[in-house]
Amino acid sequence: MKLYYATGTCSLSPHIVALEAGIPLDVERVDISRKPHVIGNGHDFTKVNPNGYVPVLELDDGSLLAEGAAIVQYLADLKPESRLAPAAGTRDRYQLQSWLNYIATELHKMYSPWLFHPEYGAQAQEVARGKIGERLAYVESHLQGSGPYLMGNTFTAADAYLFTIVGWSAYAKVDLSAFPQLRAYMDRVGARPMVREAMVAEGMKRAA
Ligand SMILES: N[C@@H](CCC(=O)N[C@@H](CS)C(=O)NCC(=O)O)C(=O)O
């Protein structure tokens, strides 16, 4: 299996999930700073994903799966014993999907593209930061009552995704100072050996 990724982007989330699940993974870096985006051999990445974005998972039969929220569930279901996703059809599985959708639509797509492109203007960016602040306040209160992870005591695919997106905060100038639970959560998740390993593999961190 191969994960198409770009360093430090949302593709870090399935990278973490694969490592946490103990799934052997080939990785192929996509240069999303070039237009069109290219992969290592210089090939146009839109031949892999016509939408041009990471993550994409190439399965062993050559078929492709796009969209981070789907990829992390696919990986987690390959190793149910990892408990990265509750069993399909259970109430808890829908709760996981609720979190994945919340992170994708209310956070991920509010940070990106709005806070990564100054050309959108300061006003649009302040609106995005305000919305993100509201959504993070909700996460903060949830962690306070039901932590240490989003789904309670068990680290799941939703935590890999939330950690990845909230990890953009310093760069995107999203102020986390009002969210002590969330900051502690980021430290907790960031200290997990497989999370560190994924970050080292992507060149975001030095090996200890
Ligand atoms: N809907 C997609 C969005 C993925 C996405 O936004 N990927 C970004 C990196 S975080 C990307 O590759 N951007 C490059 C581009 O869109 O050209 C998902 O949730 O997987």
UniProtKB/TrEMBL annotation:
Transmembrane segments: none annotated. Keywords: Transferase. Coiled coil: none annotated. It is an enzyme of class 2 (transferase). The keyword Transferase applies. GO terms for molecular function: glutathione transferase activity. PROSITE patterns: GST_CTER (PS50405), GST_NTER (PS50404). It holds the Pfam family GST_C. Residues 1-83 form the GST N-terminal domain. Its EC number is 2.5.1.18. The keyword Transmembrane does not apply. SUPFAM superfamilies: GST C-terminal domain-like (SSF47616), Thioredoxin-like (SSF52833). It comes from the Bacteria. Residues 89-208 form the GST C-terminal domain. This is Glutathione transferase GstA. It comes from Aminobacter carboxidus. The lineage of its organism: Bacteria, Pseudomonadati, Pseudomonadota, Alphaproteobacteria, Hyphomicrobiales.
